C-alpha cells in the first residue's frame, strides 16, 4: 500500500516537472529585482520566499476563480536562476490539467497589487514577462492648476493697470475741487472789495480779482 | 530747462539699467553658449572680444550719441541728420514692429511653463498615459516627455506650415498676459519704465548666480565645464567662427532697432554716455560668458545623467538576457561584461546585438548635442531641471528669469516703436496711455497668429529672416551716414558739446573705417549664404516619426521671407 502511494507521488511529481517547460505552452516567466528595489534592506531569495510566491499565486487564482481551492502545490516553478527569475505553470486543484495562459494572466492582473505587496516590490521590480501592468488612472483636477496661477497674476496686472490709469485722473479731480473752493472764497472777497471801491471813487481794477481768473 | 517738456530718466542709473535690461536678453542665454560649443569652447572668446572692440562698442556709442544729441526717436533723429535719411528711421521702426510681434510669444511660452511649475509632478517629467492605461502615449514614448510637452501640449504643433489649426487658448491667454504686463511697464513712459528696470536688470543676475552654485554642484557638471573650457584653437582658423562672433555681438547689443536711440533721447544733454556705453557693452558680454558657464554645467549634468541611464539600461538588458545575479554587473563594469558575454555566449549575444548597438553609450556624443534657441531653453533646460532635487523651485526660478530677460528686451522694443511715432505732431494729440495701448493691442492681435498650431513655423521664419538681414543694412547705412554724410568733424563737435571732450582716435577710426568694412563683409556673406542656400527649408515636427526632417517651404513662404528681407 505504502509503496503504491509512494509510486503515485513520485509519478505525479515527475509529471508536474514535465509540465513546466520554459517558453512552451502555458508557462509564464517571472523576474524579481529585489536588490534594485530594496538596496541594503534586500532579503535573500530562498525556499521560503519561493513558498510565499506560490502561496500568493494560489491566492490570486482562488480570488479570480471565486473559490476554486487552489493550493501551494498547484503552482509549479522550474528553471530558477541566479537573477532570481523562473518559469512556472499553474494546474487545476487535485488534477494535472494546466490552467490556460489567459486565465492566469487575468488572475495575476486582478491581484497584482497584493502580490507586489507580499514581496515589498513594485510593478517594475516584480515582472511577469508578457503581462503589462495597468497604470493608475491620471488624476485630473476640476480646474487645471496653471489656470489658477494665471488668474492670480492676470488679476494683479489688471488692478495695476487700472490703478495707474485712474490715479492721475483722481488726482486731477481732487486738485480741481481744491482750486474751485479757493476760487469761490476769493470771488466773495473780490466782489466785496469792488463794491467798497466803487462807492468811494474811481474803480481801480488793480485790486479786483478778474486777472487771477483770466490767467487760469 | 526743457522747452519741449520731454520726459527724462530720474537718474543716469535708470538709463544704464534700461540699456542693460534691453541688451541682456534671451540671446545671451541661448545663443552664445551654443556658439561657444560650436567653435571650440574657450577659444571662441578671442574672436568674440575682438569683434566687441571693432564693431560692438563703437556702434553702440554712436547710437547713444545720436539719441542723446537729437533728443528724438529714430525717425526724427535721422531726419535731422539728413532729410533723405527718414527712411532709415522708418526701417528701424518696422523692424521693431516685426520683432515685437513674435518676441512676446516667447514670453507667453515662459509664462506657460512658469504656471505649469506649480504642480507636485512637473508635467514635462512624465508621459501622459494612453487610453488603454497600458503605457505612455505613443507619441510621447518615441520622443521624450519634455519634447512631447513642448511640441504637443504647449504648441500643439501641426505637421506642416500649411496646416492651420485653431488658436491654442492657453497660449493666447498667456500672450494677452504678456502684453498686459508690457503695457503696465510702459504706460507712463520712462517714468514707469525707469522704475521697472531696477528689477528686470538685476534679478536675472541673482537667479544666474543661484543657478551657478546649483549647477556646479550637480553630479557630472564638471564634464560639461571641461568640455567648454578646453579651447580648440584650430577653430580660430575657421572663418565661420569670426563671422558668428561678429553677428553675435551685433545682435546681442540690439543695434539698429532704434531702441538705443529712443532710450538715449530721454537723457540729460550732458549725460556721460561714453562711460555708460563701455559699461553696458562689457556687462552684456560678461553676462554671456557667465550664462554659458551655467549652461555648460547644466549640459554636463544632463549628458552624464543620460549616459548613466544608458549604461543602466545596458546592464539590465545583459542581466535579463543572461539571467545573472543582480549585483554581478555594476555600472562601471557594463562595458567589460559586454565584451565577456559576447565572447562566451556568441549565439545568445547575437539575439540582442541589435539592441546593444542601438543603445551604445557615449558621453562625448551626449555632450556634442549642441542646441540653441527655444530648443535649449524649453527642452534641454526643462529636462535638466526635472532631474534636480526640488524641481518645482528650480523651474519657477528659471522661467521667472527667462521672463525678466524677455520682458526687459520687450521694453526696449516697444519704446523703439512708440518714441519715434510720438514725435510726430499728429500722434502727440492722443494721450500717452491711449497711444501705447493701441500699439500693444495691435501687436497682440497680430501676434495671436503665432499661437495657432502652425504658429511655431511662422515664428521660426520671423526669427530667422525678420531682423537679421535688414538690421545689418540699417546699421551699415547708419554708420556711413554719420561718418560721411553728417561728417566725423560735426559729430565730434556734437560729442564735445555734450561730454566736454572729443572722442579719441580709436572711436573715429572705428566709425570711419573698420565698422563699415566689417558690416559690408557680413552683409556680403549673408547674401552669398542666402543665394547658395537654395529653396529655404524648415524643420517640421512629424507626429509619427517624432523627428524634424527638413521640408521645403512653399512658395508663399519664400515670398514672405523675401518681403521681410526687403525691409
UniProtKB/TrEMBL annotation, chain A:
<feature type="domain" description="Collectrin-like">
    <location>
        <begin position="24"/>
        <end position="216"/>
    </location>
</feature>
<feature type="region of interest" description="Disordered">
    <location>
        <begin position="177"/>
        <end position="216"/>
    </location>
</feature>
<feature type="transmembrane region" description="Helical">
    <location>
        <begin position="146"/>
        <end position="170"/>
    </location>
</feature>
<dbReference type="InterPro" id="IPR031588">
    <property type="entry name" value="Collectrin_dom"/>
</dbReference>
<dbReference type="GO" id="GO:0051957">
    <property type="term" value="P:positive regulation of amino acid transport"/>
</dbReference>
<dbReference type="GO" id="GO:0070062">
    <property type="term" value="C:extracellular exosome"/>
</dbReference>
<keyword id="KW-0472">Membrane</keyword>
<keyword id="KW-0325">Glycoprotein</keyword>
<keyword id="KW-0812">Transmembrane</keyword>
<keyword id="KW-1003">Cell membrane</keyword>
<keyword id="KW-1133">Transmembrane helix</keyword>
<dbReference type="Pfam" id="PF16959">
    <property type="entry name" value="Collectrin"/>
</dbReference>
<keyword id="KW-0732">Signal</keyword>
<keyword id="KW-0597">Phosphoprotein</keyword>
<protein>
    <recommendedName>
        <fullName>Collectrin-like domain-containing protein</fullName>
    </recommendedName>
</protein>
<feature type="signal peptide">
    <location>
        <begin position="1"/>
        <end position="18"/>
    </location>
</feature>
<dbReference type="GO" id="GO:0005886">
    <property type="term" value="C:plasma membrane"/>
</dbReference>
<dbReference type="InterPro" id="IPR042944">
    <property type="entry name" value="Collectrin"/>
</dbReference>
TrEMBL record, chain B:
<keyword id="KW-0813">Transport</keyword>
<feature type="binding site">
    <location>
        <position position="405"/>
    </location>
    <ligand>
        <name>Na(+)</name>
    </ligand>
</feature>
<feature type="transmembrane region" description="Helical">
    <location>
        <begin position="278"/>
        <end position="299"/>
    </location>
</feature>
<feature type="transmembrane region" description="Helical">
    <location>
        <begin position="434"/>
        <end position="459"/>
    </location>
</feature>
<keyword id="KW-1133">Transmembrane helix</keyword>
<feature type="transmembrane region" description="Helical">
    <location>
        <begin position="465"/>
        <end position="488"/>
    </location>
</feature>
<feature type="binding site">
    <location>
        <position position="28"/>
    </location>
    <ligand>
        <name>Na(+)</name>
    </ligand>
</feature>
<dbReference type="GO" id="GO:0005298">
    <property type="term" value="F:proline:sodium symporter activity"/>
</dbReference>
<feature type="transmembrane region" description="Helical">
    <location>
        <begin position="44"/>
        <end position="62"/>
    </location>
</feature>
<feature type="transmembrane region" description="Helical">
    <location>
        <begin position="165"/>
        <end position="186"/>
    </location>
</feature>
<keyword id="KW-0479">Metal-binding</keyword>
<feature type="transmembrane region" description="Helical">
    <location>
        <begin position="509"/>
        <end position="528"/>
    </location>
</feature>
<dbReference type="GO" id="GO:0015816">
    <property type="term" value="P:glycine transport"/>
</dbReference>
<feature type="binding site">
    <location>
        <position position="252"/>
    </location>
    <ligand>
        <name>Na(+)</name>
    </ligand>
</feature>
<keyword id="KW-0915">Sodium</keyword>
<dbReference type="InterPro" id="IPR002438">
    <property type="entry name" value="Neutral_aa_SLC6"/>
</dbReference>
<dbReference type="InterPro" id="IPR037272">
    <property type="entry name" value="SNS_sf"/>
</dbReference>
<dbReference type="InterPro" id="IPR000175">
    <property type="entry name" value="Na/ntran_symport"/>
</dbReference>
<keyword id="KW-0812">Transmembrane</keyword>
<dbReference type="Pfam" id="PF00209">
    <property type="entry name" value="SNF"/>
</dbReference>
<feature type="transmembrane region" description="Helical">
    <location>
        <begin position="242"/>
        <end position="266"/>
    </location>
</feature>
<feature type="binding site">
    <location>
        <position position="409"/>
    </location>
    <ligand>
        <name>Na(+)</name>
    </ligand>
</feature>
Amino acid at each position: 500500500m505504502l509503496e503504491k502511494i509512494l509510486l503515485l507521488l513520485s509519478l505525479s511529481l515527475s509529471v508536474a516537472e514535465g509540465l513546466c517547460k520554459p517558453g512552451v505552452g502555458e508557462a509564464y516567466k517571472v523576474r524579481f529585482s529585489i536588490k534594485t528595489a530594496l538596496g541594503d534592506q534586500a532579503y535573500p531569495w530562498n525556499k521560503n520566499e519561493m513558498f510565499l510566491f506560490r502561496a500568493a499565486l494560489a491566492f490570486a487564482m482562488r480570488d479570480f476563480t471565486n473559490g476554486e481551492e487552489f493550493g501551494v502545490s498547484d503552482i509549479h516553478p522550474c528553471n530558477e536562476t541566479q537573477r532570481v527569475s523562473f518559469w512556472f505553470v499553474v494546474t487545476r486543484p487535485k488534477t494535472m490539467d494546466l490552467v490556460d495562459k489567459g486565465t492566469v494572466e487575468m488572475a495575476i492582473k486582478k491581484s497584482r497589487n497584493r502580490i507586489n505587496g507580499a514581496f515589498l516590490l513594485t510593478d517594475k521590480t516584480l515582472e511577469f514577462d508578457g503581462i503589462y501592468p495597468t497604470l493608475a488612472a491620471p488624476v485630473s483636477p476640476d480646474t487645471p492648476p496653471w489656470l489658477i496661477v494665471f488668474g492670480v497674476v492676470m488679476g494683479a496686472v489688471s488692478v495695476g493697470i487700472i490703478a495707474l490709469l485712474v490715479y492721475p485722473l483722481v488726482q486731477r479731480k481732487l486738485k480741481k475741487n481744491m482750486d474751485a473752493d479757493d476760487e469761490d472764497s476769493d470771488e466773495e472777497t473780490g466782489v466785496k472789495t469792488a463794491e467798497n471801491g466803487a462807492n468811494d471813487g474811481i474803480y481801480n481794477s488793480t485790486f479786483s480779482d478778474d486777472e487771477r481768473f483770466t490767467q487760469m | 530747462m526743457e522747452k519741449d517738456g520731454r520726459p527724462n530718466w530720474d537718474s543716469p542709473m535708470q538709463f544704464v539699467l534700461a540699456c542693460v535690461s534691453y541688451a541682456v536678453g534671451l540671446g545671451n542665454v541661448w545663443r552664445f553658449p551654443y556658439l561657444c560649443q560650436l567653435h571650440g569652447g574657450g577659444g571662441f572668446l578671442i574672436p568674440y572680444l575682438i569683434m566687441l572692440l571693432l564693431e560692438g562698442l563703437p556702434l553702440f556709442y554712436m547710437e547713444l550719441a545720436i539719441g542723446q544729441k537729437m533728443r528724438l526717436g529714430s525717425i526724427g533723429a535721422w531726419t535731422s541728420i539728413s532729410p533723405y535719411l527718414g527712411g532709415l528711421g522708418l526701417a528701424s521702426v518696422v523692424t521693431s514692429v516685426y520683432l515685437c510681434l513674435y518676441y512676446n510669444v516667447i514670453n507667453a511660452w515662459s509664462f506657460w511653463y512658469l504656471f505649469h511649475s506649480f504642480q507636485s509632478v512637473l508635467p514635462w517629467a512624465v508621459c501622459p498615459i494612453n487610453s488603454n492605461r497600458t503605457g505612455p502615449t505613443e507619441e510621447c514614448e518615441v520622443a521624450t516627455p519634455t519634447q512631447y510637452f513642448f511640441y504637443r501640449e504647449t504648441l500643439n504643433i501641426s505637421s506642416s506650415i500649411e496646416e492651420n489649426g485653431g488658436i491654442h487658448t492657453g497660449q493666447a491667454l498667456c500672450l494677452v498676459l504678456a502684453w498686459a504686463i508690457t503695457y503696465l511697464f510702459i504706460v507712463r513712459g520712462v517714468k514707469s519704465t525707469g522704475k521697472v528696470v531696477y528689477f528686470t536688470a538685476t534679478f536675472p543676475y541673482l537667479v544666474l548666480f543661484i543657478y551657478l552654485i546649483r549647477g556646479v554642484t550637480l553630479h557630472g557638471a564638471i564634464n560639461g565645464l571641461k568640455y567648454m573650457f578646453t579651447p580648440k584653437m584650430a577653430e580660430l582658423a575657421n572663418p565661420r567662427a569670426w563671422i558668428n562672433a561678429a553677428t553675435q555681438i551685433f545682435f546681442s547689443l540690439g543695434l539698429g532697432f532704434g531702441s538705443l536711440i529712443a532710450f538715449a533721447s530721454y537723457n540729460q544733454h550732458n549725460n556721460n554716455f561714453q562711460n555708460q556705453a563701455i559699461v553696458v557693452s562689457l556687462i552684456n558680454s560678461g553676462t554671456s560668458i557667465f550664462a554659458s558657464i551655467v549652461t555648460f554645467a547644466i549640459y554636463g549634468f544632463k549628458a552624464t545623467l543620460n549616459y548613466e541611464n544608458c549604461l543602466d539600461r545596458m546592464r539590465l538588458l545583459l542581466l535579463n538576457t543572461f539571467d545573472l545575479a543582480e549585483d554581478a554587473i555594476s555600472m562601471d563594469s557594463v562595458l567589460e561584461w559586454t565584451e565577456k558575454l559576447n565572447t562566451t555566449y556568441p549565439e545568445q549575444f547575437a539575439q540582442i546585438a541589435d539592441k546593444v548597438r542601438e543603445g551604445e553609450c557615449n558621453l562625448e556624443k551626449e555632450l556634442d548635442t549642441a542646441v540653441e534657441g527655444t530648443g535649449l531653453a524649453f527642452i534641454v533646460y526643462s529636462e535638466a531641471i526635472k532631474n534636480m532635487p526640488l524641481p518645482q523651485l528650480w523651474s519657477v526660478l528659471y522661467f521667472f528669469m527667462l521672463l525678466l530677460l524677455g520682458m526687459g528686451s520687450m521694453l526696449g522694443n516697444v519704446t523703439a516703436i512708440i518714441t519715434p511715432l510720438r514725435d510726430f505732431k499728429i500722434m502727440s494729440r492722443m494721450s500717452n496711455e491711449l497711444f501705447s495701448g493701441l500699439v500693444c493691442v495691435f501687436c497682440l492681435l497680430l501676434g495671436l497668429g503665432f499661437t495657432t498650431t502652425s504658429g511655431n513655423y511662422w515664428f521660426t521664419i520671423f526669427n530667422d529672416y525678420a531682423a537679421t538681414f535688414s538690421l545689418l543694412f540699417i546699421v551699415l547705412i547708419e554708420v556711413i551716414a554719420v561718418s560721411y554724410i553728417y561728417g566725423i568733424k560735426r559729430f565730434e563737435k556734437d560729442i564735445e558739446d555734450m561730454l566736454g571732450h572729443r572722442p579719441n582716435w580709436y572711436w573715429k577710426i572705428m566709425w570711419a573705417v573698420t565698422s563699415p568694412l566689417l558690416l559690408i563683409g557680413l552683409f556680403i556673406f549673408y547674401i552669398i549664404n542666402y543665394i547658395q542656400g537654395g529653396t529655404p527649408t524648415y524643420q517640421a515636427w512629424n507626429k509619427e516619426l517624432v523627428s524634424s526632417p527638413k521640408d521645403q517651404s512653399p512658395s508663399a513662404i519664400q515670398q514672405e521671407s523675401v518681403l521681410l528681407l526687403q525691409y
